[in-house]
């Protein structure tokens, strides 16, 4: 050490002894300032939306809740000789989940007795979401909006939930094909509180007779999503249109003057000339809207800008997450950054979700890892035995969202359940990222498991 620096260190050391109170009070001052700042309402970085800092009630949503499932012992006796010849494969929770006769069935698919029934006084259970339980509408029927999404309609100040109406028989069209329910149509439900849902009927119905029509009941209509176009004053629906073997791989577009339909079906096509299966649409703060779809046999996603009337794609498209085999995209935005939750490609069987982030919606997109928190390892590896479909921002509550997923029941698809859980964007991402240059650019996306939970008291849409 040079003489100069040694004397500087000595001066600092000697100074530090007499200034300890100063340092302590400065620190206290800083903490008080930080706290006061955190209590002020903030403006969203780009959205201009008023951001309320969440209080104590929100912390409940981020509590880590564990699940302890015991896999039951194998049923039926096997002779010791048989057991020696072919030791029984140990069953996993996923096997149990997919096994209709599993003793654990009631844990994944609780029966009607436990249904969430907002039309009847549920006492202390009012406003609670119970992921996996049957959820009844205001007429007492199970809600039918699978693979769905929610539109908040500023004109009526209502939430509209659209999805696949699947209340029909499940069957296997071919030995190796996926289980299916014939197209019935797109269901729509309305709500003010995101808990009590009124059935608004089928807003886009199947075609019963003309078997050359895209919506003929023998085809596939999945993952419908609706956005509103302020300029044309139209509600525009995009959906996955396919044949029973999933070889058509198209998007379909429909339009309506009212959120409750009826929607007029316009056409189907392969966007940008590519195969398109699981998909979603996303409307940005500036009114530009995008189509996001799994393509090239589900090996990659494509993000494409829609035309101004939202009725078609433009030529602007980027291939993203190439080679990552992701589907079921659900996109959202927080403070100028785009986030997306996707699933793996295992049909109706659950698999691990991934969170992705990007500073431009057209990419590059980075994969941040599994967002699921709590439950147990298998819960986290299976997205809580569900597959994402939509992420709904809680208006005015910065960083808090509802993650909406489907717990598919391949034996009876109409009895598939909804898994709604709180999702937050906060803290640093836990995987080093390719484009971050040493800085954690993105925040961590977390989806918290809860057996039951509700939106914070006094929350209102
Ligand atoms: C899933 C997809 C669902 C449905 C299903 C059919 O991978 O996310 O929307 O298409 O496959 O097996």
UniProtKB/TrEMBL annotation:
Residues 69-89 are annotated as: Disordered. The chain crosses the membrane at residues 20-40. GO terms for molecular function: hydrolase activity, hydrolyzing O-glycosyl compounds. Residues 75-89 have a biased composition (Basic residues). It comes from the Eukaryota. Keywords: Glycosidase, Hydrolase, Membrane, Transmembrane, Transmembrane helix. One of its GO terms (biological process) is carbohydrate metabolic process. Belongs to the glycosyl hydrolase 43 family. This is Uncharacterized protein.
């Amino acid at each position: 050490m040079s003489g100069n620096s040694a004397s500087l260190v000595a001066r600092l050391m000697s100074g530090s002894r007499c200034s300890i109170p100063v340092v302590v009070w400065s620190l206290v001052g800083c903490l008080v300032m930080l706290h006061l700042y955190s209590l002020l309402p903030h403006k969203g970085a780009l959205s201009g939306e008023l951001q309320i800092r969440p209080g104590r009630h929100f912390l409940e949503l981020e509590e880590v809740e564990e699940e302890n499932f015991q896999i039951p012992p194998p049923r039926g006796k096997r002779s010791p000789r048989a057991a020696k010849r072919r030791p029984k494969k140990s069953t996993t929770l996923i096997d149990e989940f997919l096994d209709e006769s599993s003793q654990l069935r009631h844990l994944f698919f609780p029966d009607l007795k436990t249904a969430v029934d907002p039309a009847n006084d549920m006492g202390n259970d009012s406003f609670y979401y119970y992921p996996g339980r049957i959820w009844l509408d205001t007429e007492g029927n199970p809600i039918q909006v699978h693979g769905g999404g929610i539109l908040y309609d500023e004109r009526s100040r209502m939430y509209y939930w659209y999805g696949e109406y699947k209340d029909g028989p499940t069957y296997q069209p071919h030995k190796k094909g996926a289980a299916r329910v014939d197209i019935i149509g797109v269901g729509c439900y309305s709500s003010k509180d995101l808990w009590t849902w009124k059935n608004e009927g089928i807003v886009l119905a199947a075609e019963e007779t003309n078997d050359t029509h895209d919506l003929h009941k023998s085809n596939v209509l999945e993952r419908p999503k609706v956005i509103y176009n302020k300029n044309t004053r139209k509600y525009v629906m995009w959906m996955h249109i396919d044949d029973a073997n999933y070889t058509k791989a198209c998007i379909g577009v429909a339009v309506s003057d009212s959120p409750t339909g009826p929607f007029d079906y316009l056409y189907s096509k392969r966007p940008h000339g590519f195969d398109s299966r699981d998909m979603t649409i996303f409307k940005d703060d500036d009114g530009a809207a995008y189509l996001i779809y799994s393509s090239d046999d589900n090996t990659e996603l494509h993000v494409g800008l829609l035309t101004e009337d939202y009725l078609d794609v433009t030529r602007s498209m980027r291939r993203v997450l190439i080679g990552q085999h992701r589907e079921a995209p659900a996109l959202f935005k927080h403070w100028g950054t785009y986030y997306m939750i996707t699933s793996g490609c295992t049909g109706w069987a659950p698999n691990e979700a991934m969170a992705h982030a990007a500073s431009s919606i057209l990419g590059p997109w980075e994969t941040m890892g599994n967002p699921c928190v709590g439950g147990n390892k298998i819960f986290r590896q299976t997205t809580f035995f569900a597959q994402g479909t939509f992420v709904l921002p809680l208006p005015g509550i910065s960083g808090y969202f509802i993650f909406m997923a489907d717990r598919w029941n391949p034996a009876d698809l109409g009895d598939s359940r909804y898994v709604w859980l709180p999702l937050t964007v906060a803290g640093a991402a836990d995987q080093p990222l390719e484009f971050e240059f040493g800085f954690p650019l993105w925040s961590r996306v977390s989806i918290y498991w809860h057996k039951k939970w509700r939106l914070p008291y006094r929350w209102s849409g």
